[in-house]
Amino acid sequence: MVDYYATNPGPIEDGVLYDQDKHVSSAVWEGQERGALRCHEHTSKLDQWMLTEKQVELVKKAGFGYLRMIPAISLDNPLISALVERWRRETNTFHFTVGEMTVTLEDVAYLLGLPVDGEAVIGVTYTSCEAVCIKLLGKAPDSGYTSGGMVKLSWLKETFSHCPEDASMEDIECYTRAYLLYLVGSTIFSTTTGNKVPVMYLPLFEIFDEAGKYAWGAAALSFLYRALGNASLRSQSTISGCLTLLQCWSYYHLNVGRPKLNHDPIHECFPFVLRWKGKQSSPTSNRDVAFYRKSLDSMKPTDVDWCPYSNISHTVIPEHILRSLILGRSKTMLICYDKAERHLPDRCLRQFGMHQTIPEEVQKWERKSRGVDGGVDLSAKMESELNEWSNRHLYIVEAEEDVEESEYMQWYLRITRKLVGRHVPISSEFQRMNAALREIAHIADTVSTHGMDDQQLQSVTRIRYITYECQRDQIASTVVVATNSQSEVGKRARGKERVRRKGMGGKRKRKEEVEQYYAAGIPMQSRIPAQTFDADPSHLYHVGSEVDNPHLCITVSEDDHGVDDIDFCEDAKEVDESHFHHLAGEEDGHLSSEIAENKPHASINVVVPQVSHETREDVAQQNDYGVLV
What we know:
Strand content: 5-15%
Structural class: mainly alpha
Oligomer: single chain
Number of helices: 19
């Protein structure tokens, strides 16, 4: 029995994943590989900042006492890229074979130690850096270090990484604000520019005690959701956001690419991201995107740890973090300036030790952009989103009793994209399709038309037209068009001859003739234009399975004149004429062909059936995306 998902990766019902055509998984299925994403995060230089004790105190007041401990983990770009292929921006979840999963506010609290409860991170936008930098940092960068409302991370590090011991309190605060801007710009708010951070975050650090009241963890998750959603589009090649959070989340939850732990006391420290600090012993040199994609496509329930933190002692977790963990189950809106993303824990209840039910339909929301205007307070533009966040404690997802998860999985398999990579290569599927076409053509050729009425005869004839036309197109697609490039010729030769299709004007004329036949109401089997190909017997040779017909191959005619100069190749001394059956001319529907033998340039009159213009376009479209049978 053929696996249904071998030919249809989903979704079967597109009500949930309505943006499938834009998703990278569609491109991968069509054979368009984009390779590993470029990952932008800059934790490697954080240890070059030498903070004084007074600075550390201010950093803790601002709510970043644990984030500053984030380790410089080597990012596994192929693993991250494979995870992105499973991310769906319609639901803000990963769609795995076992069900949906996501990075929740609980994960952010456990892994990064950031506050996930508090005021929304939102404020005023800027299009220039000078004024706000002079006010809050005491100096402004040169124009070469700025770009609109963004400043280079390198300028912050070069200018503020060493605070003088005799610095005044005002200077200490300026140096600390610069560090905090660098910290968020290289971790939770890293951008695809790679080396810049918006200065709009600076005013939030003006008063350190006030900065500690913001829900920085919720903002970090909103930023990561938006980055994952953007990177999941087939047109993208980069990803930003807190990728250390994403990678460590994967290590905790999935047995895919997980390195072996070095058992050391530091691995029981908080935040839990420290468990993966240092070099890992697991080899990743030979693990590319395809390796991880295959692992995720074949992932089993035993490869998932739904509640990885349950076995870790919570005595090391600060009390304020423990109190906020309930927001991991809050169905709310996450906000980071213009980035508002839905937090939907009801779609991954098993991550909270609950049975999964069929979730509610996701309400679509507008993904806004702050634009280029400076001095704009985004609070007015995000009123509905802010109201949703303010009610975050009112929408805590609770467990349901007597839940049958099989119902969920039956629903889930209909709405999800189960596979990203093909189990069978496209080339193999083409071969299988061609074999099926040959079988259909053979049946249509050999079926007796005796006793059929005109409509039945026309149907049989149309089947013949379509199958022969598809076979001809597939033969053309398996041989290489000759080019002027020497390198291309070298790559594509390899024993195969090249074909150059010519006579496009003649083809258009023949299409018009066919359409005229239909318009005139004349049965097409009585009006079939024939195509004649000149063949040089010296070019006839056996090519095995290189083309659809094992007895035929096609070579280039060097003559620049004529229509479709194609040479047919003969296996040994005999060609089975059943392969050249004409679609008309015999009562029983068999076709005939005349082959001239033992002549220097024999003219092989092969009549190739034509189909309507619409049919040709349908076939071409199928060929572009790969036809599954």
